[in-house]
Design a protein that fits this description.
This protein has about 50 residues and is mostly helical. The protein is built from two helices and no strands. Helix 1 crosses helix 2. The longest helix has about 35 residues.
């Protein structure tokens, strides 16, 4: 519940568009990090198979 209270306070202080943008950027960052790790693994696998 603490996170939700903090989020609601953030919306009241900064505004709805900024709060939603921040939330989406935080979620997107973790997805991009995972995608980057997966691509690195794929490149390593492909380079090993080509040798």
């Amino acid at each position: 519940m603490v996170k939700m209270d903090y989020f609601m306070e953030f919306i009241n202080t900064m505004g709805f568009p900024i709060a939603i943008s921040s939330f989406l950027l935080i979620r997107l960052d973790s997805k991009l990090e995972q995608l980057n790790k997966t691509l690195i693994q794929l490149l390593e696998t492909v380079s090993k198979k080509n040798k």
